[in-house]
Every structure is written in structure tokens, then in C-alpha cells.
Amino acid sequence: MTAAMVRPERPRSWWSPDGRLPQALSSGPGGLGADPTRLVWLTRLRWVAIVGQIAVVVPAIRLGWLAPALLTSYLSIVAGLAFLNFATGRWIVRDRNPGRDMVLVQLTFDVIALTSLLLLSGGAWNPLAPLVFVHAALGALLLSGPRSLAHLALLLFALASITLFPLLPPALEARPTPVSVVLPSQVLVAGVIWGFTRWLTGTLNEHRRLLLNLKGHQERGDRLRAAGALAAGVSHELATPLNTLRMRLARLGRSKVPEDDPDLVAARDAAAHCEDVLRKMVGRQLEPGELRMEPVDPVVLVRRICASWSTSSQGVDLRVGAPATAPVILPTLAFTQALLNLLDNAAEAMASLDPRARPVDVRVGVEAAMLRVAVADTGPGWPDVVRENLGQPFLTTKPDGHGLGLYNAHALAVALGGRLQLEDRPGGGAIAAFVVPLEAFAPGELP
Question: How far from chain centre, in Å, is Cα 32?
């Protein structure tokens, strides 16, 4: 086994069984990582709390904050927490699905246990009572939506309980601060901590989402530039021998072979075809100057493209059905070339049909936060070889085709985070749908 094949073992951490700290944020609204990661984090924190609760037993009895008669009840609650933690840890190790509510259940047990311990040792006047506010932050951080609100309601009930119904320890002969002062102040502090943590968590989640979108935006731009660089390199490598071939064919026609010789004519046509393919490989949609992203109204843009194309295309009527959509960020020139390629394919598919009865239909719409521009014809439909090899260059079923129209449209759609869909049209024909996400960043040059 070579060194390149050996993967170094990740050092394990007491925080997490896989040796990693829990992910600080998640793509969803739930806060810390996925549910298993949150449970790992909670179990490690709970072990710390259990050790602390055992460590303060002796000082609490000596200082009079815990009556010796209540020691058994106190230790029973701590033992229950330890058993819960052990069972939760075993559950995580077995990779069982914890379910969406398990984090809420775990936090509920923690709040109940802490409330019970405080009730036995002075309630809201216990010096460690502010630990309740830690749970306000945990609930806002680890839970979302109705679960977070349910946890907050439980926490407020716990604050009311330890304020109204505590067992006063020997160190307290009476409540040093009136309930009318303690309870409102604790509710206020808990609400402020919960609200601030929820706001901070939402802000950090949004920033992470923006960073991920920016990274994807940059990767799509890199793919576009890589495609352009590849095409330019291929064109450069083939241009010189192709020019040499054409010069030799021209010299051969002037010297020994008649100009109308079938072989010479076929060779010249083949060379011209190769030149045409090279020009299309480095077409406008791959030029860096035309990768500029700008806000456009997709309906206006599609109508303008269709109007320009229909004036130069004979024998095909055009109908555009487009509902109102918000402006989106697109590389306008590259998108224009891709749509023109799809329109040309549709027109060629119906070349033998009556254009007045068989128009090309273009539809613009929004489906699931995706812009969809569909070009439909009433031709013979998509051949199986085209469907199965979508995204492969130089694949064509037309005698004079280059196999680059669908390829370029597909490459642009994928680079923009979307896809090119080939579908059957009800009643006969084919549909090519250019689908890209609506969401984008500020206009400007791709990073």
C-alpha cells in the first residue's frame, strides 16, 4: 500500500465521537449541525454539569444550602441525569435516528432536573440559579420554530416554580428579595437572552448561506472559464494544421487536379466544416467578456431574442407565453446564444412542416425558485441517442450538424447551477427547457 492510499486517522475528541467539533451552523433553520451532532454536544455538556452537581454537594451541605435530609433526593436526580446521558450516548453510538423532537426532549429533561435541584436548595435565591439562563441560550441555539417557543415556555414555568415554591435551606430563614421583584426580573433576563441568541443564530445562518451561495457562484464562473479555456486551446491546436490542409488543397486544385474533382470538392467541404466547428467551439458564450452577470427581466430578454431570431428565420412562427417575473442575474450574451441554439434546433426539426400550422412555442415561467425557459416544437421528438448522451459535444443526428448547440446550452445551464431538460411534447414534438436558479448575488463580473 502506497503512502498516497493511507488516510491519516483523525484524532478523537471527548466532544465528538468522530473527533470533530460540532458544526457551528447548518444550512437549515435548526441551528447547530444535524440532530445527532446536537445530541453529542448535549451529552458532553451534561457530563460536565453532572460532575459539577456532584462536586458542590459537600460545600452546599456545609454552608447550609442543602438540608442533609434532602441529600437522597438530590443524588437521585443527579443519578437520573447520568442514566439519561448514558442511554443517549449508547443510542448515538448505534447510529439510531434520533428524530426531530429528540433534542427538545433532552433539553426538557435537563430543565426539569435543574428545576428540581434548585427547588431542593433555595430556588431562585440559590447562588447557582442563573444556570437556568444557560438553557435559554441553548434552546434558542439548538431549536427552531415551535420547538424553540415550547422550550421557552417550559423555561418560564421553571422560573416561576423555583421562585414561588422553593424549599428554603438552613442558610435562608426567609426570602431575601420579594417574589414580586425576583420573578419579573428573571423572566425579563431569560427573554432577552433567548431573543438575542435567536437573532444571532439567524444572522449567522444567513451569513453562512450567503457564503455558500457565493462559493457556488464562484465555482460556476470557474467552470465557464474552464470550458472557454479548453475550447480555445483545442481551437489553437487544430487551427494551424487545418490552415495548412486548406492551403495544400488549394495548391493541389491549381496544379494537378481539376477544381471540380469530386474528391477535391469533398476534401474542401470537410475542411470548411472543421473550421465552422472550431468557430462554434469558441463561440460567444465562452468568451470572458460575455460572462458578465447583470440583472435582466427574463420576459423582456426572451421576447427580444425571439423577435430578433424570428425576423431572420423563415418558415417558423413564434409564440411567447410569459408571466410576469422579477429581474434575475444572468450572463446576458451567453444566455442569448444558448436560446438561439435551442430555437435553431426547433426550427430545423420542423423544416419539412407547414410553419403556419406548426409554430415554435417559447414559454417563460418560474417553478420552485427556478427560471424555466422552454422551447417546444412539433417535430419528430428527441432521438434516444440525444437523450442518453446529453452534455456530450459533437453528438448530432443531422447530416450537416455540428453537435454543439445542445452541448453549449447544457454547459451554460450547468455552470449557472441549473440544467437543460429534454422532454416530450404532449401531442408530438420535443421540448428543450433551460432551467436555472433565480437566486443570485449582486450584478457584476463573475469572481
Answer: 17
Q: What residues does 331 pair with on adjacent strands?
A: 293
Q: Which of 125, 112, 120, 39 is nearest to 81 (CA)?
A: 112
Task: Pick the more confident residue, 409 or 318.
Answer: 409
Mean pLDDT of 400-418: 76
Phi-psi label, residue 399: left if phi above 0, alpha if psi -120 to 50, beta otherwise: alpha
Burial of 8 (0-12, 13-18, 19+ CB in 10 A): exposed
Question: Are residues 85 and 92 in contact, defined by beta-carbon separation less than 8 angstroms?
Answer: no
pTM of the predicted structure, to 2 decimals: 0.53
Q: Quick check: is 4 in a domain? A: no
Expressed as residue numbers, the domain containing 89 is 11-214
287: Cβ contacts below 8 Å, ≥ 6 apart: 228
Q: What is the pLDDT of residue 19?
A: 42
User: Which neighbouring-strand residues pair with 294?
Assistant: 330
What span, in angstroms and rounded, lies between the C-alpha atoms of 375 and 381?
A: 12
208 & 349 share domain:
no
